[in-house]
Amino acid sequence: MIKTGIIGGAGYTAGELLRLLINHPEVEITFVHSGSNAGNKITAVHSGLLGETDLVFTDSLELLSAIDLLFFCTAHGDTKKFIDSHELPANLRIIDLSTDYRAKRDDHDFVYGLPELNREAIIKAQHIANPGCFATAIQLAVLPLAQNGSLNEVHVNAITGSTGAGVKPGSTTHFSWRNDNISVYKAFEHQHLAEITQSIKQLQSSFDAPINFIPVRGDFARGIFATVYTECDLTIEEAKKLYSDYYLGHPFTIIADSNPDLKQVINTNKCVLYLEKHGNKLLIISVIDNLLKGASGQAVHNMNLIFGLPENTGLKLKPLAF
């Protein structure tokens, strides 16, 4: 059994991670750390897990030496602060869901954890930086073109559910503002652009075109629906073959034959891609669940890879019926 711990156990991604790990056949949850909820039952915060677990939050780190893998579901910046201020066991595996280690730098050994890009490196890694949710949806929409050396200027409009903003209430997350409402934020300067560009250049080193990204707050709880287009000389048949070949053997990325909708991926670890050709432009629709494929599901996928398990272990999730 893989013995795991979680730092930052009270947020949405931690709740989804707990749901997955509780039902994972090869995992034992050793502790869930939360300074603000220490002593409370997990179900006092993650009420959907009522009847699934008797775990209690702790603020103790005494069991760090007893686990094989530590997940960080912390706010951006807090993972690095924790690692810099604590002496961690040398053989401890880490999967970080924050932004702290996604950028390649000489001062850390974290591997960027997008399996459809770095599967072989993930298998050998000790430390994984889990990708961002928008970054996952957008990268999966364009990586085959980058590998082909044919990616040009990219245009993206992507709408995300309110859970993407985290559990802490804010002026744009409370129900009366978010319901029946949409808005643009961080146009052309979203923080996920850096990791998207890094991954594209990994496959197409000559890429220097803009990625024009317009993020949109949606009036729903979970999911990302991204529409991406770029100029492309390939026919639609050539493009579909390029994408099918690239994602062959990657169980969670699916090329659809019909225009997808958001509910096809909610409560799954899938990314559904759909291609259309309009003149010289290739349209790619990319749809994911931001809390699963965009966060905790991908983290479990990475865990499966580094511990030599089948990739879909614990991730055979079913979409909503309607």
UniProtKB/TrEMBL annotation:
Residues 3-125 form the Semialdehyde dehydrogenase NAD-binding domain. It comes from the Bacteria. Pathway: Amino-acid biosynthesis; L-arginine biosynthesis; N(2)-acetyl-L-ornithine from L-glutamate: step 3/4. The active site is at residue 133. Gene3D superfamilies: Dihydrodipicolinate Reductase, domain 2 (3.30.360.10), NAD(P)-binding Rossmann-like Domain (3.40.50.720). It catalyses: N-acetyl-L-glutamate 5-semialdehyde + phosphate + NADP(+) = N-acetyl-L-glutamyl 5-phosphate + NADPH + H(+). Its EC number is 1.2.1.38. SUPFAM superfamilies: Glyceraldehyde-3-phosphate dehydrogenase-like, C-terminal domain, NAD(P)-binding Rossmann-fold domains. InterPro entries: AGPR, AGPR_AS, AGPR_dimerisation_dom, AGPR_type-1, NAD(P)-bd_dom_sf, Semialdehyde_DH_NAD-bd. Keywords: Amino-acid biosynthesis, Arginine biosynthesis, Cytoplasm, NADP, Oxidoreductase. GO terms for cellular component: cytoplasm. One of its GO terms (biological process) is L-arginine biosynthetic process. GO terms for molecular function: N-acetyl-gamma-glutamyl-phosphate reductase activity; NAD binding; NADP+ binding. It is found in: Cytoplasm. Belongs to the NAGSA dehydrogenase family. Type 1 subfamily. Catalyzes the NADPH-dependent reduction of N-acetyl-5-glutamyl phosphate to yield N-acetyl-L-glutamate 5-semialdehyde. This is N-acetyl-gamma-glutamyl-phosphate reductase. The gene is argC.
